[in-house]
Amino acid sequence: MRVLSGIQTTGRPHWGNYFGAIRQWIELQEGNDAYYFIANLHALTTIRDRDLLRALTLDSAIDLLALGLNPERATLFVQSDVPEVSELCWLLMTGAPMGLLERCHAYKDKKSRGLSADVGLFAYPVLMAADILAYDADTVPVGEDQLQHIEVCRDLAGAFNHRFGDVFVMPKAKIMDASARVPGTDGEKMSKSYGNTLEVFEDPRVQRKKIMRIKTDSRPMEQAKEPKQDVLFNLYRLVGTAEESEAIASLYRRGGFGYGEIKKELAEAAERFFAESRERRREMEADLEKVRQILGDGASRARQAARQVLHRAQDACGVRW
Ligand code: ATP
Ligand code: MG
């Protein structure tokens, strides 16, 4: 399979991002031809601070590499390093119905809150379609929230193919495991915009404090509890081994334990779980040249693939003459 996915550079990765997306990308790099990119052009619709955007771009790459993305298996690159995609985006835009984009939720949500949207946000799904189609990707691992955009991509590809011949490979969404939906420190879905995140690379002491503040229920200690209904357990099972999680689960079912103890265990398990990545991250931060080299190599591989697709599309619609 030719797999493609992008990560937004809008903040530091949290457990939701890791268990809900990044981990699955890393698994998919084995046995597939995987392309992963840092979506800095998409980020430009929300980040208008040059230094911040540049820093986040490099940081996101370091995060992925530290978490196990292997540049010898997968092609890792920065979106803006492949200008072919922006050209392809225009070709797709000329055939993108307004109504289709008006129904897309990122734009619709913003409008419905009475905010003014810019064209970049409106056309975001077209750029995303170009991102996917430029590499002949057939599999796009996404969260459920991105399904609509994959449908738009398929619509645009289908319309182009219908008009101009068989140009684009029709991609399919691969919905990432929904059971990996990670709760935040308030029990709601973990999300940057809810301010309830545990970050993958935050200082373990800071993280421990956040964990110690998680609100728990006030049932008597002796009472047996169903582990899967408790946020602490649902977080624990992500970072604990299967045996450790089972041991904790039986504490819940038996009752007679304190949440303080579980919180301590959770903080420790989290620190262990991400220790190796944290160490790798430190090494990479000390060798930014190497990171730039990896991104440069990735960009040239990606450009080579995108150029072929762009030429095919340009030939088909008559702008290459
Ligand atoms: P925002 O608040 O800006 O929407 P976010 O914290 O929800 O940010 P996204 O950038 O929307 O993060 O998420 C990127 C991807 O990470 C999603 O497509 C999804 O696959 C995964 N993801 C995010 N949050 C969770 C979560 N709580 N549980 C599981 N997966 C998640
Ligand atoms: Mg989100």
Helix content range: 55-70%
List segments where confidence is low: pLDDT < 50 over at least 5 consecutive residues: none
Q: Ions, cofactors, ligands: which are bound?
A: adenosine-5'-triphosphate, magnesium ion
Give the SSE string: EHEHHEHHHHEHEHHHHHH
Q: Mean pLDDT score, rounded?
A: 95
Query: Per DSSP, what share of the residues sits in E-state strands of 2 or more residues?
Result: 5-15%
Structural class from helices and strands? mainly alpha
| Computed Rg | 22 Å
Sheet with the most strands? 3 strands, parallel
Distance between the termini: 33 Å
Helix count, per DSSP? Answer: 14
Spatial strand order of the main sheet: 1-2-3
> How many strand elements?
5
Q: What's the shape? A: elongated
Secondary structure layout:
Elements: E1 2-8, H1 15-28, E2 33-39, H2 40-43, H3 50-66, E3 75-78, H4 83-93, H5 98-102, H6 105-112, H7 119-133, E4 139-142, H8 147-164, E5 172-175, H9 204-212, H10 231-239, H11 242-254, H12 259-273, H13 275-285, H14 288-317
Parallel strand pairs: 1-2, 2-3, 4-5
Helix pairs in contact: 3-13, 4-7, 4-14, 7-8, 9-12, 10-12
The chain binds adenosine-5'-triphosphate and magnesium ion.
Adenosine-5'-triphosphate (ATP) binds at residues 8, 16-17, 20-21, 142-143, 145-146, 176, 180-182, 189-193.
